[in-house]
Design goal:
The protein has about 625 residues and is an alpha/beta fold. It folds into 4 domains: about 260 residues, Rossmann fold, CATH 3.40.50.300; about 100 residues, no CATH class; about 140 residues, no CATH class; about 100 residues. It has 20 helices and 26 strands. The strands form 6 sheets. Strands 1, 2, 3, 5, 7, 8 and 9 form a 7-stranded antiparallel beta sheet that branches. Strand 10 and strand 11 form a beta hairpin. Helix 10 packs antiparallel against helix 13. It is elongated. The protein starts with a strand and ends with a strand. The C terminus is likely disordered. InterPro entries: ATPase_AAA_core, Bact_Antivir_Def_Nuclease, P-loop_NTPase. This is ATPase AAA-type core domain-containing protein. It comes from Persicimonas caeni.
Length: about 625
């Protein structure tokens, strides 16, 4: 069994949501901080207290009270075999039917056999208050709408699986909560388990406590001890999973200590004297031990709610945990909340739910599977991943990884622009924007941003001039412009490439000295300066055969727009190091940028001004300018 739909009315930041579809396996609940993720998980326990929504929508005037109490409407999907098992375990109550010559419950049983799945719809808050209906509808009126606090005329039956016989026990007016649908719903709610990201799990507890893991994990030690008593195979599997998340932990055991039992964390095989108490480990270890215990020991399907696993785990451990969770996706339903790109990219999710808050009201929206496929393909075409752009408000696509690294450094040092909510990412092949398919390349991003999904809806592009003619530049700007927009989304550096701004001897010397393989290289500034001038002089004479020596120093346009600066700097690296070093743009360009920002920042001022202008004016889906 699992929740197949969930709807929230007037709970915390939610006013009234749509009915959100859920599935077996991993359901990701994504959104920014304070967007309503934790409130959604609380609601799914259907045990929350009445906490009506408070905003201008529910409390329009000062002194008003919220207009409606909290409630949740949800659908539980049940397999045929699960329902048959539930009805066979004990006598079951259905709505009473009189005067039928044929036994309607027998037809009901046959009807169950015809259904692959049956959905039960409920409404409640602190438990189930109302059973609404089944889908498809149970025949003969055996399951009509019921109020939890009312009574109804019912008949009680039992089913003998060995004889395949259904027997009538009695008829009576009984509390609705005894009806088989109510009991089924409450059974599933009892199997919902929520892991809170901030709970403090203790590693010691009394011996004689329940071995059903408590919601706060307080009896984890007793549970692990009980697991040990069930045989080597299960505890071995448990420890194998623990090691996948935490490779440094060899084993987890529980040992008696008087009337208490405590967890032991083994780092070395066979050395109990070197074990650690759980309280000495980080909170993430305890959280993971609880989650894995539930996975290993559950004998029936559960709905497992995990709040922000990224908040208590290292990225490597979080990725390993999500892989394990996915492996149990055919047995359990998981709803995992996160705002972490790592979790989004590593989870093999069956559904993604986006929660957003606007003017104090949280809204839920499902990202459809076909949309997710389009997003993945489009990002691959642009050389990016979902984790690169998830959770940002806008994105600036740039020439390459060098610009992706250096442009944020320039913005931080030379402007007041804050990059919170903005991503600067490299495109995969800038040549894709030059050819006859340039418009299709731009369309890829348009499709991406118009999918109303996790991705930013505003974009800009900043590219190198390379050797493009002015006509080519204008043509690209036209192809990349948005219909109805007066904002240029494609901008070009006033240089052939970014490295043209880095042709400074001191910066080049600094980058060579910082190279990890330059230990034996002696770098003299005079040598760097002389060879840089010689190489530029040689190239300028090729460009203007009649030019006098070092005339290029007065030709700034040539220096910026014509010189292949990366080749020039690479030549200097090669000469100074006697062919032991070469320019690696993603390593050395950030180092040169670092030196310039500290010593000659005005050299990079043109780039800072361009980026500041780009970020101050972005264009939205409707072509309107978006404010910075």
């Amino acid at each position: 069994m699992y929740f197949s739909e969930f709807k929230i009315r007037s709970y915390k930041s939610y006013w009234e949501t749509e009915s959100i579809p859920l599935s077996l396996g991993v359901n990701l609940l994504v959104g920014k901080n304070n967007a309503g993720k934790t409130a959604f998980l609380e609601a799914m326990q259907v045990s929350a207290s009445n906490m009506p929504h408070r905003s201008l929508r529910s409390v329009p005037s000062h002194g008003d009270k919220p207009s409606k109490p909290s409630s949740f409407e949800f659908v539980i999907s049940c397999r045929q075999e699960e329902l048959r098992q539930h009805l066979s375990n004990q006598p079951f109550w259905v709505h009473q039917q009189r005067g039928d010559e044929d036994n309607p419950v027998l037809h009901f049983w046959r009807w169950i056999h015809e259904q692959e799945r049956i959905k039960f719809c409920f409404e409640g808050r602190s438990g189930i208050q109302r059973f609404l209906r089944t889908e498809p509808q149970v025949p003969f009126g055996l399951a009509l709408m019921l109020e939890a606090n009312s009574k109804a005329a019912m008949a009680r039956y039992s089913y003998d699986r060995d004889k395949s016989e259904i027997s009538l026990h009695d008829r009576s007016s009984v509390a609705s909560k005894h009806h088989f649908a109510f009991r089924l719903g409450m059974q599933h709610l009892g199997r919902v388990y929520r892991f809170d990201s901030v709970r403090d799990v203790k590693g010691v507890c009394d011996v004689n406590v329940s071995t059903e893991l408590q919601p706060n994990g307080a009896n984890l030690a007793a549970c692990v001890q009980d697991l040990q008593s069930e045989g080597y195979r299960r505890v071995k599997h448990y420890n194998e999973l623990v090691r996948r998340v935490f490779p440094s932990i060899r084993e987890v055991t529980a040992a008696r200590d008087g009337g208490r039992v405590r967890i032991e964390i083994w780092k070395f095989d066979g050395r109990r004297d070197l074990t650690f108490a759980l309280d000495e480990c980080g909170s993430g270890v305890a959280q993971v031990l609880c989650i894995l215990y539930i996975l290993v020991t559950s004998r029936f399907p559960r709905t497992i709610l995990i709040d922000e696993p990224n908040s208590f785990l290292h990225p490597t451990a979080a990725r390993a945990l999500m892989e394990i969770i996915a492996e149990y996706g055919d047995q359990h339903q998981f709803v995992v909340s996160t705002h972490s790109p790592l979790i989004v990219s590593s989870a093999r999710s069956s559904s993604i739910i986006l929660t957003e808050i606007d003017n104090g009201v949280s809204e839920l929206r499902t990202i459809e599977p076909d949309q997710r496929d389009q997003i993945t393909k489009a990002l691959m075409a642009l050389g990016s991943r979902l984790s690169d752009v998830f959770g940002v408000d806008r994105i600036v696509w740039v020439e390459g990884e060098t610009e992706q690294e250096c442009f944020p450094m320039i913005l931080e040092a030379l402007t007041d622009v804050k990059l919170a909510g903005t991503a600067i990412r490299a495109v995969k092949h800038t040549g894709d924007f030059d050819g006859k398919d340039a418009e299709n390349t731009f369309d890829i991003y348009e499709n991406l941003s118009s999918s109303h999904s996790l991705l930013p809806t505003a974009a800009a592009y900043v590219f190198d001039l390379e050797d493009k003619s002015s006509r080519k530049v204008e043509d690209l700007k036209r192809k990349g412009s948005k219909v109805g927009a007066d904002v240029e989304r494609i901008r070009f550096l006033d240089a052939r490439m970014y490295e043209n701004f880095l042709l400074v001897p001191e910066a080049i010397k600094y980058a060579i000295e910082q190279d990890p393989y330059a230990n034996d290289v002696s770098v003299e500034l005079e040598t760097v300066e002389t060879e840089l001038k010689n190489e530029l002089d040689r190239r300028y004479r090729e460009h203007c055969p009649d030019a006098s020596s070092q005339e290029w120093e007065h030709n700034e346009t040539w220096l910026l727009e014509s010189v292949h600066a990366a080749e020039v700097i690479d030549h200097v690296f090669d000469f100074v190091s006697e062919s032991t070093l070469e320019l690696r743009k993603t390593l050395h360009s950030p180092l040169m940028t670092e030196w310039l920002l500290a010593n000659e920042p005005e050299k990079l001022r043109p780039i800072a001004n361009l980026l500041e202008e780009v970020l101050a004016r972005s264009v939205g889906e409707d072509g309107r300018e978006l404010p910075n």
